[in-house]
Specification:
Rossmann fold, 9 helices, binds iron/sulfur cluster, four-stranded antiparallel β-sheet
């Protein structure tokens, strides 16, 4: 079996909340609370969960756009969690991010060529001509005409701008692409085109994806594996096929039951979750899902369930719930 491309262990990210005249720390947002998973080359890990579950924070912390509070991020055999910016540079070339809002992530005063080639300039890669050639090549790869290079982002539709964002992510030939809600801001009719493009690019360039989304159908379509997050914890992780066919965690079951499915044979009885997701500044003790879980019992309010393998052989199926049997 090939070594994992990425191994994340006990990753935490806590943001200080400051208040008062002296801007003292008055509390903490516990955004990530000990996230662990592995990702093999060629996998696509879908990260799902309601907003505030920590999935975007996880994506940005993996990229070191946020400094981890604790834990390790072993990428290509090296723990990058504590590297200095200089030490991090060669690893940054191998990781790229596609953002949710293609317009917000593109500087409106830069041409498409400037936008796509910016990572090459930042890393001192190639001559001006090399950069022009690479931009022309990539625009074609993502389905845009070479003439797009001299135009500005606002001249394009949302779907085209996201193609520009994808070209930029690929410009340094990364191994890992972290896509944070890459199609959520797009018209429904355009989403499938962009997702299909990402799938083709994955094959062509042998990419590995972390795909963050709240649309469970898109995540099922694109992902080989899925991790379900709640209040900064991974609640369940399994192959996409297994997780959708046989969700074991009560939270995953509720999420999947609420997801519209066209095929009546696959519809489940809808489970409505009570209440709101608690504040990440004051997460519940024990299992963080206990305030909304229909099965919660005394033990759930006292003891944090560990993420454990409940599969009966075959691919691992990890679940963090006291009541799920192997
Ligand atoms: Fe529900 Fe308890 Fe399982 Fe948490 S540990 S999901 S509260 S049954």
């Amino acid at each position: 079996m090939s070594a994992p491309l990425l191994t994340v262990s006990g990753l935490k990210k806590h943001f200080p909340v400051k208040g008062g005249l002296l801007r003292r720390v008055t509390g903490w947002v516990y955004a990530l609370n000990g996230v662990s998973f592995t990702l093999k080359e060629g996998d696509t890990l879908g990260l799902v969960g309601e907003s505030g579950c920590g999935k975007s924070t996880l994506g940005r912390t993996l990229m070191r756009l946020y400094e981890p509070t604790e834990g390790s991020i072993v990428f290509q055999g090296r723990d990058i969690a504590k590297l200095s910016n200089k030490e991090l540079m060669p690893y940054r070339r191998e990781m790229a991010m596609v953002f949710q809002d293609p317009y917000a992530s593109l500087n409106p005063r830069m041409t498409v060529s400037d936008v796509v080639s910016a990572p090459m300039r930042a890393h001192g890669v190639g001559s001006a001509q090399d950069r022009r050639d690479r931009v022309a090549e990539l625009l074609e790869v993502v389905g845009l005409r070479a003439q797009a290079a001299t135009r500005y982002p606002h001249e394009f539709s949302g779907g085209q701008r996201q193609r520009v964002g994808i070209a930029r992510a690929l410009v340094l030939q990364p191994k890992l692409v972290i896509a944070d809600e890459p199609v959520s801001a797009l018209d429904v009719s355009i989403r499938a085109q962009v997702v299909n493009l990402m799938m083709r690019l994955k094959e062509r360039f042998r990419l590995t994806y972390v795909f963050i989304a709240h649309d469970l159908s898109i995540v099922e379509y694109i992902s080989t594996h899925v991790a379900v997050m709640y209040l900064g914890h991974v609640m369940e992780k399994a192959s996409s096929k297994d997780l959708y066919a046989n969700p074991r965690h009560p939270y995953t079951q509720a999420l999947i039951s609420a997801n519209p499915v066209p095929d009546p044979a696959r519809r489940r009885e809808k489970q409505v979750l009570k209440g709101e997701i608690p504040s990440p500044m004051a997460p519940p003790a024990g299992c963080v899902f206990n305030t909304r879980c229909p099965l919660a019992e005394e033990r759930c309010r006292a003891e944090v369930p560990v993420l454990r393998d409940v599969s009966k052989g075959g691919d691992e199926h990890l679940v963090a719930c006291h009541l799920v049997k192997e």
